[in-house]
Amino acid sequence: MSADADPTPHPGAPPSPGPLLLFDIDGTLVRAGTRAHRLALHEALAQVHGVDADRVGLRVSPAGRTDGEIARTILLDAGVSAERIDARADAVREACCRAYARLCEPDLSDCVVKGIPELLAWLGQLDGPRLSLVTGNYEPVARLKLRRAGIGRWFPAGQGGFGSDSEDRAALPPIARRRAGPRGRPHPRKQTIVVGDTPRDIACAQADGLRCIAVTTGRFGADQLQGADAVAVDARELHAALAEMIADHLPRAPE
Ligand SMILES: [Mg+2]
């Protein structure tokens, strides 16, 4: 059996770990506030590659893509070779994070999706569920964005999967599960749920064999989010969908 396989529990085995919830950020927790993020990435591309990203443009939607993937798409279209992109990927990431620290709006609390602070507070006081992230944002960008939005405290350091870990979003859930497990043993797939707003969130969950709750608080409607195990139009429906999936870990009603 590979180290990543979900073992069958045997009698007397310790109780299974609580659910690991992997939240996307843009369109899921935070509704907007991406202008400074885009400016920071463009500034990094100008600084490191001398490329004017505004002139080149982005021929694909950035929704659900990692920062590194967006940078690569722009750079390839500007005629930069794949080798040069690879060689300077760390420099682009560092320049972007530096620029974002300077450009990020001081208060993003108005950009938080309605009802999300209450949802996180509810999850945070439950005994069991663990809150984590799977986002295409470079990690320092993600952490600062959530801090300025006033919801960073729910997502512990050292956890999650970020655009700084891989350009490929499908690689991020296994990274987040590995960070959540004890001694490098990945958190079980059956106990992991991805929450995101794009078909790419659903695809990355499916690539790792995970359940996914899609939310329509980003750019996509329910008809574009097929393949998710549940679709929620707002935080109230997300609460209900999560409650159903993590029912084993909710406090029991008095008999
Ligand atoms: Mg998103």
What is the topology, as strand order, of the major beta sheet? 2-1-3-4-5
- CATH topology call of the largest domain: Rossmann fold
Mean pLDDT: 91
Strand coverage percent:
5-15%
The number of helical runs is: 10
**Small molecules (ligands, ions, cofactors) in the structure:** magnesium ion
**How would a crystallographer describe the biggest sheet?**
5 strands, parallel
Structural class: alpha/beta
Number of strands: 5
CATH homologous superfamily annotation of the largest domain: HAD superfamily/HAD-like
Order of helices and strands: EHHHHHHEHHEHEEH
Q: Which outline best applies?
A: globular
Q: What is the CATH architecture assignment of the largest domain?
A: 3-Layer(aba) Sandwich
Q: What is the CATH level 1 assignment of the largest domain? A: Alpha Beta
Cα gyration radius (Å): 19 Å
Distance between the termini: 42 Å
Poorly predicted tracts of residues: none
Number of domains: 2
What does this structure look like?
The protein is α/β, with parallel strands linked by helices. The chain folds into 2 domains: 20-32 and 108-247, Rossmann fold, CATH 3.40.50.1000; 35-103, DNA polymerase, domain 1 (Orthogonal Bundle). Helices cover 39% and strands 8% of the residues. It has 10 helices and 5 strands; from the N terminus they run E-H-H-H-H-H-H-E-H-H-E-H-E-E-H. A 5-stranded parallel sheet has the order 2-1-3-4-5, with helices on both faces. Helix 1 packs across helix 5 (89-103). The longest helix is centred in the N-terminal third of the chain and has 15 residues, at 35-49. The model has no long low-confidence stretch (mean pLDDT 91). The structure holds magnesium ion.
